[in-house]
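Hi, here's the filled form for the chain we discussed.

Project: internal
Contact: R.S.
Residues: 316
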Amino acid sequence: MSLGKAIRAIAIFCVLGAVASAQQPTVLQTPRQAVIEMMSGGDAGLMKHLTLEVQNKFAHAPQDSTLMSAIAMARATGMFQSFESGPVLFVIDNPQQNEKIEVRIDNDSLRGDIDNMELSFHASRDGKEESLPVGFRVALNLKQQMELWRLNAVTLSVRVPLGDPRFYEGPLFNPDMMARARALGSDPAASSSDAPVKIAPLRAVRLIGLAESLYAQKHPEAGFTCNMADLVNIGKGIDEGESYSFVDPEFSGGVYNGYRFTLRSCGSKPASTYEIVAEPLNGKGKAFCSDATRSLRSSIDGSGATCLATGKLATR
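And the returned structure, exactly as it came back:
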C-alpha cells in the first residue's frame, strides 16, 4: 500500500470513529448516584434531582424546607458515608456512642425511564446489630427527565410489633402519653384545647444538639452558638404527620417545661465547642446535659455542673 493510500485509510478510519463516538448516548448518572447526590449534595443537590414541575413551583413560590431540613438532620446525626456499590447505600455513624445506622438497598428495579428502589434501616451498637422497635422501610420512585434521575415519589411503610412485649419497654411506648390520649378521647373539653404537648427535657437537649450541628453547617464562619434564639426554627422534623421545629420559640427565654436551658462554653469564632445543660427550676429531679459530641448525660442531683463533670449516659 502506498503512503497516500495509507493516509487516506487512516483519515477514513478517524472520520468513522468520530461519527460513531458522536452517535453514542450520553453516559447518565445511575439512580443510585442520584440518590447519593440528593443526600450528600446539600440543598442544591436535592433541588437538582426534583422533578422539573416541582422545581418550577419552587421557583415561583416560597419553599417548604421541611424535606431539606429532614435530610440535613440525617447528615447532622453523625458521620455520614455513602457507597456507590454493594448492598449498603448509606451509613450514619455515631462513634461517641458506638452506634451505627445502615441504609441498605433491598431491591433496585430499573424499567426504561423509571427506577424503583427499596430501602431498609438497620441499627447496631458496639458492633452488634440491634432490632429496631419499629420496622421502617422506604421505597423511592425515580424517573428520568432531561437526562437526570429525579425523585418522583416516596412510599413509607412501618411495621409495629404489637405482639412483641419488648416493644412496650422502649421509649416509643409512653404510658403517660397514652393516658393523655385516652383523656382527650373521653373529654370533649380537653380535646378542644390547643395547648401543644411539651417536649421532655432529655429529648429537648438532643434536639438542641441537632440544631447546633445544623447551625454550624449553615454558618461555618460562626461555628456553634451560645445564643438560644439563633437556634429557633433552624431545623424541622415530622412527628405523627405534623411538622415541628427542633427548637421551639419558647426556648428563646431559656425556660421550658419546668427546666432552665443554658448554652455555654462556645469560645471564639468559629466556635468548635459548646455545652448545653437543662436543670429543673425547683431543684428536684434530674439534670440533663450534652456537648459537641452529642453524648447525652444526666445527674440525679439536678445540677448541670455535676452532669457535665460526672453525669451518666442517658438513653431515654
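Let me know if anything looks off before we file it.
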